[in-house]
Hints:
The structure holds two protein chains of two kinds.
Chain A: E1 35-36, H1 39-49, H2 59-63, H3 77-83, E2 97-105, E3 114-127, E4 130-140, E5 146-156
Antiparallel strand pairs in A: 1-3, 2-5, 3-4, 4-5
Chain B: H1 3-7, E1 13-15, E2 19-20, H2 23-33, E3 49-50, E4 53-54, H3 62-77, E5 83-91, E6 100-112, E7 117-126, E8 132-142
Antiparallel strand pairs in B: 1-6, 2-6, 3-4, 5-8, 6-7, 7-8
Amino acid sequence: MAQAQGFETDFWKDANLRKVWDDIVPGEPRKSIPYTLTREAIELYCKAVGETHPIYFDEAYARTTRFGGLIAPPAIHILLMFACTPADDWMRSPGTVNAGQSWSYNVPARPNDVITLQARALDKFIKRERLFVVHDNVFFNQRGEVICSGRGWTIRPR
Amino acid sequence: MTTGFEALNAGDTIDGPKFAVSGESIRLFCDASLDYNPLHLDDDYMKGNFGKTHFGGIIMHGMNNFGLISRMITDWAYPLGALHRRLETRWVKPVKPGDTIQPTGVVRSKQVSAKSRWVLIDVMVRNQAGDKVATGEAMVEFPLD
């Protein structure tokens, strides 16, 4: 299994350490951890969504393209969100429901990039009896270049 | 390729890949995304109520829709020498094991900025019954170089 080293897959385990909607302070940074994106992790993501383009798999082909080498699919931030956050991050609270997301892409993530995340809750509100939090995220590579930035709307468990 | 942008018209359609959703595909997405929320793993947990929402069983990750739409956009854009620059999505309806979903896109407009060219695409994912499960907008850049 190509899981991140020591990744806790039981999201109940640290549930009591995580912030509930009431504790989340918009504007306050979330803890994050650097993550080395491996070729194996990219290939596993590709398998899960059926990506087959050679730009993600074939180094010789990738060198002939404008990218000059292998890249990860733009939506690799789906993995990075969990890979770059610790087990007590509130995004892992069981019952967190994703309502929608928007992402802007700058430079591609590549195999062996050491990726960091700057993230925070940006807003929280109650709508139709649901507890919402808006989160705001920017992923950087080891050169400080922005890979992508995005915002998500989640409904928090009560 | 610089002819791709000129040849496009509002209303042009993009057909994305059909995707069969199963317990196994959802489990694989857990491993690939590291998102092990019990929403996607635990049928017993999902028999409970979530406020006013009742799912009745595990649901696919919303971001699986997002990944499929993004796959459709990149597979369309790369051969045209274009770049996937933005995607915004909203989830309309849960997707469950046994469903088959398919993203599609429709070119809404072409725009030219000071330094580049852009195509705006309305995207949508439907299930086998034709129900909309996700909607959104994508932005693809056709660089001048």
